[in-house]
Amino acid sequence: MSWVKEDVVSFFQLFCIKVVKTGRVPQHIAFIMDGNRRYAKKHNEKTAAGHSKGFDKLSETLKWCLDLGIPEVTVYAFSIENFKRSEEEVSALMDLARDKFQRLIDEIDQINELGVRMHIAGRLSLLPEDLRKMVSQAMLATRYNNKLRLNIAYAYTGRDEISRAASLIVDGVKNNELLSDDIDDELVSHTLELGEPELLVRTSGEVRLSDFMLWQVSNSVLYFTDVLWPEFTIWNLLAAIIHFQRHAPPIKDEEPISDSKLQFLEKLEDRRWRDLEKLVNC
Amino acid sequence: MLSRLLRQFLFTLTHLVVNVLVAVQNVYSRFWAKEDDFPCNQGTENDIKVILKHLPNMKKKPKHLVVLADTSEHSLHSLALVVIWSLVAGVPYVSFHDITGELKENEEKLFLEVEKCKKGIPGCIKWSKMPNLNGYTNGTQAHTVTVNIFTSHDGRPKIAQCIRDIANNKVSCKREADEFTAQELGDALALFYPSIPDPDVILYTGSLCSAHGFLPWQLRLTEFVQLSTDHCINVNSYVGALYKYNKCDQRFGK
């Protein structure tokens, strides 16, 4: 199964997508894809099969988001806490990721044609060397795409992301790239890897964030649904978007960011790309 | 052109239908609540009976309960009652997240309202910002509730302030590797907040679920539980929320 599944939308579904699209569509949507293991249990399958079904559902969802014109999607794929799961399950999940990223690199033309830009957010130093190289390669290869930005939170927790951003900022002050007076919540928001989603969807009936995008969802619409992730359908997605349309806070104009902050952020971005290139080439 | 109009029409129609369905559901649930619950909703004494009746069914009680308080919807009296019910139920920490910014200004009034409602109920209510005035306990069984009021200023801006203080060397933060770990930054952040446990449950009213800028760091595992769809806070919705909290099994990572 490839990353963006084609031919999953019937004519009627496409029509409904177009109707919903008439209204305001979230510019960034985040998913906590919960329920793969419960799905496997329910259908008497192995846990790994559940996770694999979960990935298939992600590729379908990406197609729906492309059709809806949502420019940014963030998914919670693997938490730092997940390393505590059984060795068998962790290694199966790593294998699944290896398989999918290899596939992505093989199919890079299709991804580039669709204009999908990949970003893997998390403490990548926790990943096995080969996987780390693969995800860096995927990010570099899709760097200039701009139709849909797909952020995959991998080896990620929200607290860890804030801590890493704090390190970058403290170092910035130490190296005279930044004045300590410039440090405010706006700067922290921009230093974090992930932007603010307008809508967060969590499947399988759990009603907490589980350390996902803690900073970013401060003012987002949270939507919890009972359906298990592998059973998530276009109708569940449209229901979430209609809920968003009913309750979304008004769009705030973003204030322009000061030059000194901008310079610092650009330096960070440059450094990040250089680090990725180093990783791939070594 | 025609298809555009048609789409626009269907879009409006869809939202109209959803509005009607939601309205019908609200009327139904309010009617149902009236039939069933109103007779016993006459005073604090009855509230206490209701809570004590249901309490044995609860397998777990939250240690720290947060209410997203919207002063344009909730009266000080109903917020004060949440403190009283929590005192009876044995929830040791109750916090209000002040969405409008008005509650913080009226902290004194809320304090007096809680005192008024508390009359005759054993236990002790502590306010983080005020000296202990009412610290009497009645025997060994009495509970204690600590009340805090937070605003969105305690959320992101405070974390940014912590990072600024670390950068200025005003606050020390251990750093063993290249980057801070969540544990290390968490230790530094703890200096900026009262030492209370992370919230277990956050109660909201109305159909929109949002954190409204509530403390992002502490929100990690907090369950979002809806108190009521119509912004009404009564003892039945409170007990209902505790039941909902009990159904959530806490499973993190594993």
UniProtKB/TrEMBL annotation, chain A:
Keyword Ubl conjugation included in the entry's annotation: no
Enzyme kind, highest EC tier: transferase
Domain of life: Eukaryota
EC number assigned by the record: 2.5.1.-
Keywords, in A-Z order: Transferase
Catalyzed chemical reaction(s): n isopentenyl diphosphate + (2E,6E)-farnesyl diphosphate = a di-trans,poly-cis-polyprenyl diphosphate + n diphosphate
Signal peptide: none
CDD domains with a match to the protein in the record: Cis_IPPS (cd00475)
Keyword Glycosyltransferase: no
Family affiliation: Belongs to the UPP synthase family.
Name of protein: Alkyl transferase
Organism per entry: Loxostege sticticalis
Lineage: Eukaryota, Metazoa, Ecdysozoa, Arthropoda, Hexapoda
From TrEMBL, chain B:
Keywords associated with the record: Endoplasmic reticulum, Magnesium, Membrane, Signal, Transferase, Transmembrane, Transmembrane helix
Enzyme class: transferase
Needed co-factor(s): Mg(2+)
Entry's localization field: Endoplasmic reticulum membrane
Record's catalysed reaction(s): n isopentenyl diphosphate + (2E,6E)-farnesyl diphosphate = a di-trans,poly-cis-polyprenyl diphosphate + n diphosphate
Pathway it works in: Protein modification; protein glycosylation
Gene3D superfamilies named in the record: Decaprenyl diphosphate synthase-like
InterPro entries linked: Nus1/NgBR, UPP_synth-like, UPP_synth-like_sf
Enzyme Commission code: 2.5.1.87
Any single Pfam family the record assigns to this protein: Prenyltransf
Family listed: Belongs to the UPP synthase family.
Name this protein carries in UniProt: ditrans,polycis-polyprenyl diphosphate synthase [(2E,6E)-farnesyldiphosphate specific]
